[in-house]
Every structure is written in structure tokens, then in C-alpha cells.
């Protein structure tokens, strides 16, 4: 679990570095007080958050970042392509290979036929909310919406 947190934390820290150095003024201001992954780990102690909680929060944060990048790419925002180039230059790797492609993850959920947790629920919510969704077929969208609804219904019980 610690290895996965460190891997995902490094992704988050790279996003944070980019926003602080190259982001729009509003983004820079918003991220100035954001903790880096190593700082977040200091919160994990008896009576505080568990590592599993911190890991889930990090996954949800990365889902949100992925959603912002996808929106930015669709809208032609230079910051989206700029970040992907920054990540590639800094790491020698592709962001989507490391962070996970949301569409590929949604298809894996479809294949499994079940949403495992809130993190996957939010991932699907981010994909299903836009009305101009074109990455998934109409059938995939219909089936994902059904899984999304089923997960919500189970959570209410």
C-alpha cells in the first residue's frame, strides 16, 4: 500500500510542481497551500487517518486531475498539453500510462461488471457527467450508467 501511495503521490507532486511554476495565477494561488505527498504521510498515525484513507483520497484527487486534463485537451487549453509535455520531459514517461487512462479504467469496470468503491464511482461520475461524451460508445455509456446507479442504490441501503 505504501509503494502505491508513493507512486501516486509522485504523480500528484508533479502536477503540483507544474501548477505552481506554470499554472494560471488562480491555480497557483489555489495550490500554494496544498501539501505534498510526503507531508500528507505525516498525518498517518494512530488516531489519525489510516494509510488506506490517504491512498483513496490520493486516487480521488488524481481522478479529478485526470478529468481537468481531459477537459483541457477537449477545450484546447494550452495548460493541458503543457502539463503532459512537462510530465514527459520530467519523467520520460507518458502521464496516462502512469496515472491511468480514465476511459480504459471505465472499460475495466464494465468488464468486471461492478464498481468496487467510491473512487471508481467518482471516476465514472467524471466520465458520465459531460453530455458531449464521445470516448465511450452509447452502449458502454448505458451500461456504465446502470452500474453507477446500482452502486448508488447499494450505498443508500
General description of the model:
With 157 residues, this protein is an all-alpha fold. It folds into 2 domains: 1-99, no CATH class; 101-157, no CATH class. The protein has 9 helices and no strands. It has helices spanning 2-22, 25-31, 37-41, 51-75, 78-91, 95-99, 102-112, 118-128, 138-156. α1 crosses α4, α4 (51-75) packs parallel to α8 and α8 crosses α9 (138-156). The longest helix has 25 residues, at 51-75. The chain is globular. It starts with a helix and ends with a helix. The mean pLDDT is 93.
SSE inventory with pairings:
Blueprint: H1 2-22, H2 25-31, H3 37-41, H4 51-75, H5 78-91, H6 95-99, H7 102-112, H8 118-128, H9 138-156
Quick synopsis:
The protein has 157 residues and is an all-alpha fold.
Amino acid at each position: 500500500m505504501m509503494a502505491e501511495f508513493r507512486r501516486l503521490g509522485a504523480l500528484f507532486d508533479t502536477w503540483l510542481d507544474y501548477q505552481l511554476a506554470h499554472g494560471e495565477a488562480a491555480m497557483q494561488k489555489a495550490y500554494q497551500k496544498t501539501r505534498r505527498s510526503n507531508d500528507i504521510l505525516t498525518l498517518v498515525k494512530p488516531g489519525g487517518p489510516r494509510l488506506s484513507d490517504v491512498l483513496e483520497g490520493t486516487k480521488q484527487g488524481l481522478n479529478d486531475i485526470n478529468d481537468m486534463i481531459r477537459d483541457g485537451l477537449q477545450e484546447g487549453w494550452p495548460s493541458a498539453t503543457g502539463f503532459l509535455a512537462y510530465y514527459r520531459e520530467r519523467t520520460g514517461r507518458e502521464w496516462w500510462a502512469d496515472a491511468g487512462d480514465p476511459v480504459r479504467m471505465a472499460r475495466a469496470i464494465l468488464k468486471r461488471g461492478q464498481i468496487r468503491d467510491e473512487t471508481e464511482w467518482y471516476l465514472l461520475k467524471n466520465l458520465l457527467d459531460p453530455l458531449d461524451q464521445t470516448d465511450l460508445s452509447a452502449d458502454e455509456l448505458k451500461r456504465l450508467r446502470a452500474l453507477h446507479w446500482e452502486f448508488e442504490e447499494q450505498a443508500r441501503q
